[in-house]
Amino acid sequence: MSTPEAQRAINRGASVIIPCLLVGTVGVATYVVVVRLGVDYLLRPSSDLQLTAAYPVNPRRGTAIAIIVVYCILLALMTLPYLRTFQVIQTNPGYIRRGPHAQRDQPPAAQAPKSRPSSAPVPRPPSKNALPNPTPAAAAAATAPPPRPRPQSHLRRHRRPAPGLERFYAKDAFVCDMSGLPIFCPKCDNWKRDRTHHCSEVGRCVRRMDHFCPWIGGIVSETNLKFFLQFVVYAALYTLFMLVVLAVFVAEQVRIGLGRDAWLIGILVCSATFFFFAAGMSGSVIQMSLRNYTTVENLFKGNKTYFIAVYTGPQTPQAAMERPLYPTVTYPLRPTPGADIRQFAILQTKPGENPWDLGALQNWRELMGYSWLEWLLPIKYSPFCKHGARYEYPFGPVLDRMRREAGLSSR
Predict the structure, then answer these.
(1) What is the pTM of this model?
(2) Which of 273, 275, 268 minimizes the C-alpha distance to 233?
(3) β-strand partners of 314
(4) What percent of the chain has pLDDT over 90?
């Protein structure tokens, strides 16, 4: 059984090999559709075909030109977002900055040997008469269940929190733990922004991480999810076109006695395989995007709850010391005289609620843009990449309801 580190190494290696295979497959497909089918069979059938076929093979220039033109258009539409996705992965993958004590993911430590060395003394169980009979209080303490561990935040584990909290409490709401602190990543030694997840394949925290995809050579995140979706949609159309065209002409060649062209059949099989993959991925990404989920979030959407720190409004030092009906946290954690004190209510969503769900249409616009041209071409980044001053990502009606239930005005 492979270890997690071995699996991550396989994924990283696949992210280098698979894009090269895709480029080679597309190159062979272009040769088959344009040259072997479009030119040698439809546009200028050779004399060898005339001699082999049971029926005359006449030139079909209109059909050849139409197939070649449509193929080139679909190829361009598929290639542009793929190259854009690859370019963004290399230049702006959406990584969170590491802290000064960040560590890369390390392979698991070697397991301890199962057998004890022969030179080591073997402990013997104590005899029944070794200790006096325990007292009733000691016996009750021994049989009592161990105390339930309390969840510890980053503030409890460290005497002084890591820097960078001001980026969070300057906003009106942010995802936090039950103590009101932002989520902390010990591997990257930094605070996690909303919807940020640590990717073990790249060893970094990634904004709005969706998944690691070997087909595009890296991580799918907030900066390239739009381009990735455009790629898989156009890839589905591209492979569907080849699947239909090649199936029609392979059947025709068999019918007129030319036999089965191995080149056409090979690309036909590849087209069918990639079509089902691209169509399935397109449907999955579109479905999650309409509900404003990433792949990581979708895995736990049934029972996932979020703690959200919500700004309660301007506070004086005296008012900040009063105990409200809901748990609160006050920033700065160590205020200085004259500091702007901001108090946050720590609210919790219900299981399965998505606080970023804005409705299907608005979710789609936040991902793809606000014009048809942005939907079709890989030009601009997604609108949600422009992180606002009030929120990292726009919150939906769930946060408004939580504010009303807590007695806070919906700002």
Answers:
(1) 0.81
(2) 275
(3) 342
(4) 58
